[in-house]
Amino acid sequence: MASTFTPLHDRILVRRLEEGETLRGGIIIPDSAKEKPQQGTVISVGKGKSNDEGKVFPLDVKAGDTVLFGKYSGTEIKLDGEDFLIMREEEVLGILK
């Protein structure tokens, strides 16, 4: 379903990148205590932001980009049992090359 989901306007659908299991001093940190990664892959994007005159400006990010975003950015949703984030393009801090 995620491949057929298209966000509206200037919103993007992002899948968080999973980090490897962290060991600190030989102690395994449980998933509930780990911080969520602030990187993700853009799955799909909306048409763009429109101004008062109705002109649409396309987004700078595109599907497949790896992006950085703030710790509390976006809204978490679940599609087909998989976790995603929906956020506005302005919440993206940058694109990783």
If you average the pLDDT, what whole number results?
Answer: 82
Q: Please state roughly what percent of the residues sit in beta strands, choosing from under 5%, 5-15%, 15-25%, 25-35%, 35-45% or over 45%.
A: 35-45%
Shape: elongated
Secondary-structure element string: EEEEEEEEEE
Largest sheet, if any?
A: 6 strands, antiparallel
Fraction of residues in helix: under 10%
Radius of gyration: 15 Å
Characterise the protein shown here.
With 97 residues, the chain is mainly beta. It has strands spanning 11-16, 23-24, 27-28, 39-45, 49-50, 56-57, 66-69, 75-79, 82-88, 92-96. The strands form 3 sheets. The chain has a 6-stranded antiparallel sheet, with no helix packed on it. Strands 2-3 form a two-stranded antiparallel ribbon. A two-stranded antiparallel ribbon has the order 5-6. It is elongated. The two termini are 27 Å apart.
SSE order and pairing:
Blueprint lengths: L10 E6 L6 E2 L2 E2 L10 E7 L3 E2 L5 E2 L8 E4 L5 E5 L2 E7 L3 E5 L1
Antiparallel strand pairs: 1-4, 1-9, 2-3, 4-7, 5-6, 7-10, 8-9
Name its key features:
97 residues, mainly beta, two-stranded antiparallel sheet, elongated
